[in-house]
Please model this.
Amino acid sequence: MNQQEAIITKFYTAFQQKDAATMNSCYAEDIVFSDPVFGMLQGDAVRAMWQMLCARAKDFSLVFDNIQCLDEEYATCNWTATYTFGASGRKVVNKITAHMRIQNGIITEHSDAFSLYRWCKQALGPIGWIFGWSGFLHNSVRRKALRGLSQFMQQAAH
Model:
């Protein structure tokens, strides 16, 4: 196992255990993260996002595979998270492709790609089926996610 495979394995094994501290230890201080729900996050906001997601995860399981090292810095893997979405109580099976830049043994950039329409259909039910393709609903989901993250960070600061 090379260094990229080792850090990716450490990150997702920790995620399986909902161990945000170990996940965050895999990241550079100025980590840049993006995904379809949260958009672009950096640094402490990324670490807080994983803390929040791990703390709030219900009926959570995760599998990861297909780690591919593209060159000396870039790697990808596939992961699938299964959980109950808190706002609706609906089961979500989210299939994700992660793209990571790894420098000096730590992740400096992390981007997760998945279908937000597919996620909306599962998490939001009929509303997601009807409007899950729309920019309006995508923006609404992002605003709620960022508001939840901001509240989580404020509570953690006190």
Notes: The mean pLDDT is 95. The longest helix spans residues 135-157. The two ends are 41 Å apart (CA to CA). The beta strands are 27-35, 39-42, 61-69, 74-85, 90-103, 106-113.
